Amino acid sequence: MTEINRYAIIRKWVLIGFLTLIALISGLAIYLNYYWKPIITERIKEAIHQSTDGLYRIDFDNVRINFVTGRMNILNIRFTPDTLVYNAMKRDSIAPRHLYKVAVAELILKRIQPWKVYFDRDLEMGSIEINHPSLELNFTDLKSNNGTLKGNRRTAYQRLAPYLKSVKIGDIIFKNADLKYIDNSLNGTNVTALKSLYIKISDLLIDSASQFDKSRLYYTRDIYAEFMGYNTITLDKNYNVQIKEFRASTAGAYVRMNGIRVVPRFGEMEFSRRFKFLKPRYTMNIEDVQLNKVDYELLNTDRRISATSLIINKANLSIFLNRQFPDSIRNKGVNFPQIALQRFKLNTTVDSVLLQNSRVDYSEYNPGSLRKGKVTFSQINGTITNLTNDSIRLIKNKYSDVKLTSLLMDRGRLDVSMNFNLNDPGGAFAFGGQLGNIDADILNSAIRPLSLIEIKSGFIDKMIFKGTGSLKGVRGKLTCYYKDLKIALLKMSGKTIRLKRKGIASIFANILIIKDDNPSPGAPVRTSNFLFNRPQHSSFFNMIWKGFAEALLETIGFDSATQKEIKVRLRKMENERIARDGRRDDRLRKRDARRSNRNGNP
After folding, report:
1. Does 442 score more than 70 pLDDT?
2. In this structure, are 420 and 473 located in the same domain?
3. φ/ψ of residue 165, rounded to 5
4. Residue 489's pLDDT is what?
5. Do 472 and 362 belong to one domain?
């Protein structure tokens, strides 16, 4: 036999052996798949059912296992709660507050070792990717008679221990997930739906040691979530709400949002006409919001928000009111800052709020002038400390301090400080501040349409104010240093529907009433004390503005009593003018009659 024939025979037998080995392995894999598939299927279903005390069951259409590659495909998974078991748990005060429902078209597990799972009871995988799952979370605020939720205190490891000694998965990734969060704790049911959500769960480890690791949330090192391009319409159909980007991480302990917009779906006048009563129209655009050092464990276990700081960057808020419509009988005191915080459903604590480079535009339409007045606060920067409605935190510190700086009408620096008693049901607060120098006529865009007064000239050196307030009203003291103040009183011109000056009235007011300077030459500085009793339809800021307006008008000598006096004098002057005109007309008639008689006319 030649050397060539010998090598050909060896290659032939090696090939036959290799093919035989492949056939045996394939046959063994088919046998094992056929034999083990019902066992693994039953084990999965039993593990879910037993580890959740019968609350959940898992169903799927098929399981395909490749023992050679370590790949497992599970088709059409349904993870659903048993409502009968859940209702029984509620009666026994052991029901969880969150109820989950999950649907997945296909789950692919790679590089798993069924032998190790079965014999060593260790489940290890590099990653799991789940495409387009449907997730539904129902929250119900369940409490037992003594005010605490009993629940089942067994850890996830203790629940899985009869089936697995450990579970270790590098990454679990949900792509294009549809999430529906249903909150049953509010009045009615509040549903939040998110589309195309991306969730990445990193380093999942369930074993005898990790069950006591406080650095892990749900046995993970990190749960990261993000979504892009959120867009919805509010329940009342009046606004579009948009969020460009949302990101959150349990390891980073943050929540970040970019491009937050609240956009009215109707123009200013059309919006106001949709209601029978006065209704503010809001437009909001926030470039960036960051919530830092969020306690996700506390949020998960007690549904409490706790964070060290909230940073709001470039928040622009526009508010419009149409005074054509009557005020609602609703008491707007419920929206006082601390009252609104007390009413907030979630227990919340934020150590400090940082407001950066923001702006507020407030405008009103006055039917008396048929015009819109506007006041602006730009370049708003400041801090709010101890923002909380947590009863335990309030025992230690019941006050929240607010310190803000801004530019009034884009010109004058305005510094404001406020102190809120967060525990007070009457909404008690204190305030103080100072406005820097500014040309008085800058304020005309707000004053002219709203009060029919025009500032012709004047300069404000500074204005200092302080006071206290509550749901009942506001009182305080205001001192305004100014000079060379001249005003004009305005009226509507019927033919052109425009504002024109009341000449005689303006001269009368400037000469006899208005005090040009404060302090006046040789006199002390005038300080005005103000008291405004709040009607229930008056909002927090409207109440403060009314108090300020009364004090300013009193300072310049144009208070309500003086305005009444001016009207009386003007009516007297008008009556005297009418009488003079009447006497003049009578003289003219008599003169014409005498001329006619001299000319021989009958």
Report:
1. yes
2. yes
3. -85, -30
4. 64
5. yes
Residues 36 and 62 in one domain: yes
Neighbours of 316 (CB within 10 A): 17
Residue 207 dihedral angles phi and psi, to the nearest 5°: -155, -175
Handedness of CA 95, 99, 100, 101 (dihedral sign): positive
Spatial CA neighbour of 389 closest among 423, 427, 351, 424? 423
| Closest C-alpha to 470, from 529, 527, 531 | 531
pTM of the prediction?
0.80
pLDDT of residue 20: 46
Say whether pLDDT at 248 is over 90. yes
Tokens of 235: 């329940």
d(CA 533, CA 470): 10
| pLDDT tens figures, 3-24 | 555 555 555 554 544 444 444 4
C-alpha 345: how far from its chain's center? 13
Assess whether 165 and 134 both reside in one domain.
yes
Closest CA to 287 of 233, 332, 243, 254: 243
Cα separation, 292 vs 257, in Å, equals: 12
511 & 388 share domain: yes
Q: Hey, what are 284's tokens? A: 């909001």
Domain boundary among 169, 200, 225: 169
Residue 569 structure tokens = 């004098």
pLDDT tens by residue, 507-524: 444 444 567 888 888 889
320 vs 87: CA distance, rounded Å: 48
For 176: left if phi > 0, alpha if psi spans -120 to 50, otherwise beta; the answer is left
Peptide linkage before 519 cis (omega within 30 of 0): yes
Q: Taking CA 40 as the corner, what is the angle to CA 35 and CA 46, rounded to the nearest 5 degrees? A: 135
Query: Are 361 and 505 contained in the same domain?
Result: yes
- Using alpha carbons, list the distances in angstroms from residue 281 to 131, 271, 321, 368: 41, 7, 7, 20
Domain that holds residue 450: 330-558
Helices (H), 52-155: 83-91, 114-115
What residue has token string 């204005």? 463
Q: Is 480 domain-assigned?
A: yes
Evaluate whether residue 467 is within a structural domain: yes
Amino acid at 562: T
The reply to whether 388 falls in a domain is: yes
Tell me the per-residue pLDDT of 283-297, one tens digit each, with 9 for 90 and over.
999 999 999 999 998
- What residue has token string 């003594």? 146
The number of folded domains in the chain is: 3
Highest mean pLDDT among 118-122, 371-375, 475-479: 475-479
Range with the poorest average pLDDT among 11-15, 32-36, 144-148, 521-525: 144-148
Instruction: Using the predicted structure, report yes or no on whether residue 25 has a pLDDT greater than 50.
Output: no
The answer to the question of residue 451 being in a domain is: yes
Residue type, 371: R
**Average pLDDT over the chain, rounded to an integer:** 80
For the chain, how big is the Rg over CA atoms in Å? 38
Residue 587 sits in the same domain as residue 496: no
Q: 451 and 335 in one domain?
A: yes
